[in-house]
Specification:
The structure is a single chain. The chain is an alpha+beta fold and about 100 residues long. It is built from 3 helices and 5 strands. It has a single domain (about 5-95), classed as RelE-like (YaeB-like fold). Helix 1 (about 10-25) packs antiparallel against helix 2. The radius of gyration is 13 Å and the shape is globular.
């Protein structure tokens, strides 16, 4: 069964997201985080579900969820979550700072 993994930067993204949302409403923060994890699980089952983003990096894919954009790539049959960012962020800049592919 395919799995998903978060790189350290993706963990940091989720921690920052949780801290930001929890200041306003803990229930909303929890709902968003649960929704994101459910989306990670969906991507693990259907890794090609996201949009291919070859203009940013070979093998990179993106998928929107809960108002955020998940950037990931497929490693063997698993999904490696690289970033979880707001969709309006400069994706070219974010792609330059992604960890090397494994």
């Amino acid at each position: 069964m395919a799995k998903f993994y978060l790189v350290p930067q993706a963990h940091c993204d989720l921690e920052a997201l949780e801290a930001r949302l929890s200041r306003d409403d803990l229930r909303i923060a929890r709902r968003v985080l649960v929704g994101l994890v459910e989306t990670f699980e969906l991507l693990a089952q259907f890794p090609r579900l996201g949009q291919a983003r070859p203009e940013l990096r070979s093998g990179l894919r993106s998928f929107p969820a809960e108002g955020w954009l998940i950037l990931y790539h497929v490693v063997n049959s698993d999904v490696e979550i690289l970033r979880v960012v707001r969709g309006e962020r400069d994706l070219d800049e974010i792609a330059r700072d992604l960890p090397p592919q494994t």
